Amino acid sequence: MLQATQSRPAGAFFDRPGYVRPRQERRHLISIDDLSGAELRHLAARGAEFAAGAEADGLRGQVVGVLFRKTSTRTRTAFSAGALRLGGGVVTYGPGDLQENTGEEVSDTAAVLSRVLDVLVARTAGPESELRAYAAQRRMAVVNAMSATEHPTQALADLTTLLRRFGRIEDLHVVYVGEGNNTATALTLALARFRGVRLTLRTPPGYGVPTEYLERAAVYTARSGAVVEQRHDMAELPEADVVYTTRWQTTGTAKPSADWREVFAPFQVREETLTAAGGPVFMHDLPAHRGEEVTGGVLDGPASIAFDQAENKFHSARAVLEWCADPTTERY
């Protein structure tokens, strides 16, 4: 029978002041810009492999923290379930759970979490700089599950959706209709990497994709031959492979003008919109407000792949977690 006073072995890890368990440096995904073109293609393809039934346990023995300060159905479920399916454990945090709410600095929170967690998936709906502060340490991977300016994991799920539907991403024409929000910025940066892609942005005046993101995309299109163009009307809609929209009320973001609905009204996706675009498939990142950004006839109609797209968030989340946390995955 063991004595309660039994001494610890000399040099045991718990006797070493400041001990930090050894790890390889982690990979962060805070912006699509954090990925090389090869990494972007790998993650899209890996998501499709998971969708086709591939299994992996790259998170076995690892712990994923899931921090959501804003509401989430698809992204939170995708990453929580994805971590479990990869063999990992999950710790969840709600809006008021961490001591940051009482004044603790982000750097201190990150320093503590990084000694316990292997990955932190965070939706702050705040500036990207906050996520970069979490990522300043090198032991815990940080994944942007949506910031105020960019939603990179949604873009990766969108790429997997295109790959599964068309068998390719190159040479597709995507028409994005609606606000130039965090979904649109990430989609713009992602599609700009692919050869021959044409992305047509039809955004309400005053609510377009910011110039900064168009300029960043232009760096990629100069190499890929992709085309990104933005207009602020719905006239002469071109034929396309995909029409994509998002809800008008972006999570965590208030509109600056009280009459914004009047400005947005012409940008509703209706059956006639799909006809004008030559019969494309319809994508929506969800949640949707039927009767606002899209009619029920389109969202629930035969052209819609929105719910397949939602499922692909789960497959894509596994690809992201595996890439971030598993040191055996190749660095492209």
TrEMBL record:
Q: Name all Aspartate/ornithine carbamoyltransferase Asp/Orn-binding domain ranges.
A: 171-324
Keywords (alphabetical) are: Transferase
Biological process annotations from GO: citrulline biosynthetic process; L-arginine biosynthetic process via ornithine
Q: Which GO terms describe its molecular function?
A: amino acid binding; ornithine carbamoyltransferase activity
Q: Which domain of life is it from?
A: Bacteria
Aspartate/ornithine carbamoyltransferase carbamoyl-P binding domain mapped to chain residues: 27-162
Q: Which InterPro entries match?
A: Asp/Orn_carbamoyltranf_P-bd, Asp/Orn_carbamoylTrfase, Asp/Orn_carbamoylTrfase_sf, Asp_carbamoyltransf_Asp/Orn-bd, Orn/put_carbamltrans
The record's PANTHER family line, in alphabetical order, gives: ORNITHINE CARBAMOYLTRANSFERASE, MITOCHONDRIAL, ORNITHINE TRANSCARBAMYLASE, MITOCHONDRIAL
What the record says about family reads: Belongs to the aspartate/ornithine carbamoyltransferase superfamily.
Task: Please give the name of this protein.
Answer: Ornithine carbamoyltransferase
| Taxonomic source organism | Streptomyces lonarensis
